[in-house]
Amino acid sequence: MNIANIRDIFPVKKNYLYFNFAADGPLPTTSKAAMIDALEECSEKGLMAVSKQIAIYENLRNELSILFKSKRENFAFTKDTSEGVLLAMLAIDIKEDENYIVATDAFPTTIRMMENNCKGHMRTVKMNAPEPLQDQLLKVVDKKTRAIVLDWVHFFTGKVIPLDAIIQLARERNIFTIIDGIQGAGAMKLELDASGIDFFVTGAHKWLLSPQGSGFIYAADHVWQRIKRRSFGWLGYDWGDFSDFDMEPQLREGAAVMEYGTRSYSAAVGLVESLRLFNALGIDAIEQHNLELRKFFVDKIMGKGYETIFNEKSAPIVPFKTAVEDTLSLKKRLEENRVIVSLRNGYIRAAFHLVTDREEVEKFIDLL
């Protein structure tokens, strides 16, 4: 499959110039059709057979293992990023006299969730500060630090953190890493098993072009050598065929132990189909396509006098504004011309993905 040949499976392209993947990704028709089939079967036949449910989650693990070059047993289905972060924090079980580190300029909902659910003390760094992130971390870690929780890609600036340096710093001090991947997963390449990341969490409704209410948590093999394996709910146990509940169930293998409650079958069906699209295209080609469009866009609008927050290592996210037009007015004008973007921190935020082609970017630039 070639990126240039996928126009027909994204109807959004018929109606809009869509550059809002950092907020929500449009669903491909392949995922939509699979979800409709699943819902119709549930409606006509009642609850989905257990064997069929099990199969779809195994398919999900297989597709994730291909996309992220990782063992299939290291993945579990979640409904969003916050759930994944919470599961990782519960697994680590940070005590009241211990601490964890977050970025104050990360996406705020995750920080609020940790404040409300973690017993330990929060220490902070900033992703977008002039001082390198690893230098900031060295100033706040100590022997009581249990986890470093960071975004792989900043939701506003597109800045990519130096994963290798941060993971090395954490591993040397026996500190867990929890990486929020929602602004990078599907847009850029990452080989999880080789990365050394302990927990990688993401919702799939942005760059992975999947239904809301779908996502995953990755837990590396070595995690279970450092913390106790336990279940957070009934699905963390292997119940066999769900016909004998007098048995003593065993904990499920790998990350599946973290799937604590009843999952959304239709959301999982949609996610599997979207992942198949990514694997058919290849993440290397997708990343190259995205970054080439980002570079083309930045060069052109800077030539028009627009201000951007950009560096060569950024993800395919570009915040921009101009001194000659109010940002709110600019966004309204773009919307009137059926251009879909976001407003963030006084800037227009545009994002570039496999759905977008060069011709659409050129039309966007002409409107500016």
Largest sheet: 7 strands, mixed
Amount of beta strand: 15-25%
CATH topology (fold) name of the largest domain = Aspartate Aminotransferase, domain 2
Q: Supply the CATH architecture of the largest domain.
A: 3-Layer(aba) Sandwich
CATH homologous superfamily (4th level) name of the largest domain: Type I PLP-dependent aspartate aminotransferase-like (Major domain)
User: How many structural units, i.e. domains?
Assistant: 2
Termini separation comes to 33 Å
Description:
The chain is 38% helix and 16% strand. The chain is an alpha/beta fold and 368 residues long. The strands form four sheets. A seven-stranded mixed β-sheet has the order 2-8-7-6-5-3-4, sandwiched between helices. The protein has a four-stranded antiparallel β-sheet with strand order 11-12-15-14, with helices on one face. The chain has a two-stranded parallel ribbon with strand order 1-13. Helix 4 packs parallel to helix 5. The protein is globular, with a radius of gyration of 21 Å. 42% of the residues are buried.
Please tag this protein with its features.
single chain; 368 residues; alpha/beta; Aspartate Aminotransferase, domain 1; Aspartate Aminotransferase, domain 2; 2 domains; seven-stranded mixed β-sheet
What does this entry show, briefly?
The protein is of the alpha/beta class. Helix content is 38%, strand content 16%.
